[in-house]
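Worked example 3. Consider a protein that binds flavin-adenine dinucleotide.
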Amino acid sequence: MLQSRQVDVAVIGSGPAGHVAAIQMIKLGFSCVLIGPAHGGTDGRTTALLGSSVPYLEGLGLWDAIKSEGQALRTMRLIDDTGRLFKAPTTEFDSSEIGLEAFGYNIDNNRLVACLHSALGGLEMSRLIEDQQFASSVALGGDRVHIDMADGTEWNARLVIAADGRKSIVREAAGIEMRKWSYPQAALVVNLHHASTAHNNISTEFHTKTGPFTLVPYRDGFTSSLVCVVTADDAERLKAMEPAALALELERRAHSIYGAFEVISTPQIFPLSGVMAKEFHGPRAALIAESAHAFPPIGAQGLNLTLRDISTLADVIREDGINDPGSEEVLVAYDRMRRGDIWSRTAGVHMLNMSLISSLPFGQGARTAGLALANMVPTLRKFMMKAGLDAPGRIGWTSAAMKKHQPKL
Ligand SMILES: Cc1cc2nc3c(=O)[nH]c(=O)nc-3n(C[C@H](O)[C@H](O)[C@H](O)COP(=O)(O)OP(=O)(O)OC[C@H]3O[C@@H](n4cnc5c(N)ncnc54)[C@H](O)[C@@H]3O)c2cc1C
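Given these inputs, the predicted complex is written out as structure tokens:
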């Protein structure tokens, strides 16, 4: 007979989103299973954790470990490298202008998952179980969700949290449709050492005709992670280069602001596309992270948006769902509360990307004018900085919480 085990909450997907969701559910007092294969440690990306992500992770007791692995982002510098007639002025946003010591921290994804995974060990183990394999199918509805595992075992839970990515089996079981779109671009991701010049905790984004070329402080004062958004062909061409030739080419594209580069990781390519679920909940199911939304890596928004999914879900459960975290009431409230933030972030990233790659003068002009105005009007600059960090309705909360937090550089 198949083994069937019961928990309050099942989280499917063991990436950063799934780990944080499981830790959050344990902190709310539920029993929880985290389902998904062990992390392979092969993710070449880094994640800038910004704004409300910092106090939120601090509240879960996770921040000190994560922060010790990351680099502070104190200044964001935008440089127009489109070579177009109407050139935007170089713009620098400094976190001190909005009373913060840093906008956030950039951390290697493998180290981030390792930190989160070791935090699982500190939790009350009787209430947290890890099942390091794929879930093969999910049956939603009724009083409990049934999850069939690859090894033939089964889990029953009152709530399933879908953190299983763009091809989510939870979303599929709920019959939720996706809007999907693609971009004629890909992101080449690689880490670089620049021995002659320190980054001074500045993140530099060159706006090019094919997308942003962004250098973000990485492991120490003399390393940066690069997200280089180019055409798919150009990304393949760069990836095929020998490390020394690639370093030279990237130094050229960075206008030698940090002197010579040394390539210190294997380049990886991520094709750019967008997805958005038409609903963010199903019967006894909450969609979070890339099962619900994904968009190009511009402005460091993806995982930060996901952390707001999880904190909102926790808020509505605390309010109305301690007795039944998968009730219709909780999930409808979660869905309603996430719409504005997810829609506005997705639209904002889309418009910023299109303003770079579109040949239409309107989008280009709007970006140039926006940055010119930001340079001249301090109130607008401050608004843009705060808007980049958090959901519109939570900006004040973020600033207050981050000021209290005051990360030390
Ligand atoms: C180049 C690039 C740069 C980025 N930079 C930033 C940034 O600076 N800041 C930011 O906030 N965001 C950033 N993002 C977005 C961020 O990386 C993603 O949002 C985040 O990594 C997604 O994590 P996740 O846990 O949601 O998904 P994943 O890491 O994809 O995890 C999904 C997990 O689900 C598991 N899974 C799938 N199906 C099943 C199943 N049936 N059963 C069990 N498990 C299953 C998979 O094995 C996987 O472990 C960036 C993205 C890219 C592409």
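Take a moment to read the result before moving on. Residues 209 and 359 are 9 Å apart (CA to CA). DSSP finds twelve helices and 20 strands in the chain.
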